[in-house]
Each structure stands twice: as structure tokens, then as C-alpha cells.
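Provenance

Sequences were taken from public entries as deposited. Structures were produced by running a predictor on each sequence independently, with no templates supplied. The record for DNA polymerase III subunit epsilon from Pedobacter psychrodurus is shown for reference.
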Amino acid sequence: MLYAVVDIETTGGHASANGITEVAINIHDGNEIVESYTTLINPKQPIPVYITALTGIDDNMLLDAPTFDDVALQIYQLLNDKIFVAHNVNFDYSFLKHHLATAGYDLQCRKLCTVRLSRKLIPGKSSYSLGKLCTALQIPIQNRHRAAGDADATSILFNLLLECDQEGIIADMLKKTSKEQVLPPHLDKASILRLPHQPGVYYFKDSKGKIIYVGKAKDLKKRVTSHFTGNTPNRQRQEFLRTIHHVDHVICGTELMALILEANEIKRLWPENNRAMKRYEHKYDLYVFEDQNGYFRLAIDKHKKNNNALQSFNSLLEGYNFLNQLVDKYQLCAKLCYLQKTVTKCYAHENGQCFGACSGIETVSVYNKKLNTALADIQKQQPSFALVDEGRKDDEFSCLVVENGKFYGMGYFTDKDYLADGLAPIKNDLSIYKSNSYILNLILNYAEQHPQKLYKL
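Predicted structure for DNA polymerase III subunit epsilon:
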């Protein structure tokens, strides 16, 4: 069995927009290095100042160096059919796989990460960065942050790891069923093994325990593992994987409950790597307020986070159509509802004169009574129901409650007569969550598709 111990230097942190400036490959037979290869590479793009400060490689050094295409075949032949070994292997592998693919070569290697191996075989170190780990183990590094120097140090470290492996850990990691080589370097495989094949919400955390991503899953283990498959070279993915140190989870009874919990957790925690759910909000709401003359007025306005809306809409037109229906049905004043500036279409307009509220002829008490009737009817049209579904285990049910058209909360129970006395007795047993139109639409759509799970309250 042959190993290719690899280190590269690059112009940046992700393969899709950055080049390789240096490659070093040590072919290792499990006992010693049997062949070495190193070369500078002209990336055909400027070297950033901070990269030069770190590696010492500048533009002038690479003027006469070969391009990657010039050496691609040689690199491919060295790596092909070998086990690809590197410190934080997915970084080096993603760069070489991407640039080899651009040159026409499909690299397919089994991988070993010396960060992950060191955590297993040499536990208890304060840091597993190559420099600090080598210092702790008294492994000499010549030309730190240069490909050949780091590859040589990684080769010595790999020798030590092979000697320490008395329980066949390396062989287990190389099994096709292991999948360990695809995991981020700092994420313990045990945390993946603990994940159940159940719906729920998972939390990725960084080295300090800060939550950096929240996701939902129909199958927690499958979904979390799917984050680490493939070798997508873009910056966002590579930086995301490098920051994952821990994963926690919460089991939910159903995928719908996981969706709802995910939406609330993203709003509560605001993780830096969640984007789509942060942006979701309905754009317009229907509000009621009292003007200086005492008239209650309805208005469609832009969504305001902390205001209580009567109804929410995706568009201004949708809101105006709803309000126009209210005006016609309850003979409200279109002008007081901001639907028109003149009184020419007012229901109380006759012979050029208005007899309605906007002219002050219709009294406050009469007009407000009509508007309150409209508001009461809107409230009556808002549904109140419970969805009873599967629980987290066989002897458990889940309960999800909507009250007066707003999501109230959800929880779990074992008593089949749980809802026999209505909503009031069970409220204290539910976890209360904030309602929004996204969540309500999820629930209403699910209730429509599964009417057998619906209990009217």
C-alpha cells in the first residue's frame, strides 16, 4: 500500500478562485519515503501580500515556474492509486482535485487526515495545527509554510501515527463504510455516530461553542453527513467546513415540527452561515389604528417587526384586494382606509356630496361599530385547530396548535384523550413559539394535505 503525503501552498483559501503556487508530494510505502517531488507553480495571478509574508513566495519567484497544466500529468500520476495523506486533507485535496479536473484529469483517491488521526492516536494536545503539534512531539520542520518543509514534517508525523496505531484505526478509517475522511478535521466522528435516523434540528458549533449554522432534517444522521460529501471548491463551503468543531441536535416528532423549530432557532440565534431563512418575511400587513377624531382606520403598510398585524400579505396588490373586499362588504369609508383620495366612489357619496365618515357626517360611534363588526368577522375566519401526529418514540404523540389564525406552540403527550377538553387545559404543556406567515403557511398546507390529523378547537 502506497501513500502520497502532500502539502501545497496557494494564493488563497478556496480552489475555485485561487491558484496553487507550490506542490510537494512524498510517496510513502508505510515504512519510509520512497520518492519525493516538489515544484513551484506559476498560478497566473498575483500573489497577495499576506501570502508572501506567510510563505516567502512572491511574484518574481514564480515568473519562470511551470503552470499547473505543465505539471498536471506528472502530479496526477504520482497521486493516482495512492492514499492521499495531508494535514487537513480536504483542503489540499479540494485544490488538487479542482485544478486537475480543469486540466482534464479525474482524481479519485482515498484520503487520510493527519489532524483527525492525531486526535485519535495522540489525544490530549492543546493544538493540532501542524506547527504546534510538531513542536509538542519534537518533530523538526525546515522551511515552515513551504510545501516541501511541511510535507516532510507531515511524513515524520505520519510515521509516528503508523507506529502508534495498535488497534487498526487507520485501516478502519480507510474502509469505504467509514466515511471519516470526508468529515471536517476538527469534528469528532463519535458526534456523527450519536445522531439518530429521526427528524430534528441540528446545530454546528465552532471551537468556542458558538452556533454557526442551524438546519432541519427528516433524517438527522443522513442530513448532517450530506454536508461533508463532495469536494466543492468554493470559498464559502471550505471556510464553513474548517470552522465546524461540534454538532448538537434536538429530536422532533415530525419533519414539520423540525421546520418550525429551525425557523424559530434561526431567528433567535441568527447564525452567520444561515442566510435564506433570515430574509423571509411577508412584505405588507393590515393594521388598525384610531385617528385624532376617534375614527378607527384600516391601512395596508410595510411589514413592521414589532407591530401586531391583523393580516399579512406577500404583495401590496394582495393587501389592497383584501381591503377593498372589506370596504364593499361592510360599507367602510374607502378614503379612511387609504384606498382613494377623493370621495367620488364613496358608498355614501351622492350628487357631489359625501354623507360618510370621511366628511364627518357619519358619526364615530356608527362608523366604528361597522368597522368592529368587520374586525370580529376577520377574527372568526381565523382558524383554531390542533395537528396530532407521530411523536419522538412509539408511545408518544405530537401536538401542534394554531389559535385564532396564529401558530401558538407545540409539544408531546401520551394520553389519547389529551385534546378532549379543548385547548385551555393543554396550553401549559406546550412550548410556545413566535408565529409568522412562513410558519403558518407550512402548517395550513400540511393540514390541508393531512385532514385526518386535524382536530378543530
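The mean pLDDT is 88.
The chain has four domains: 3-174, 189-269, 284-381, 385-456.
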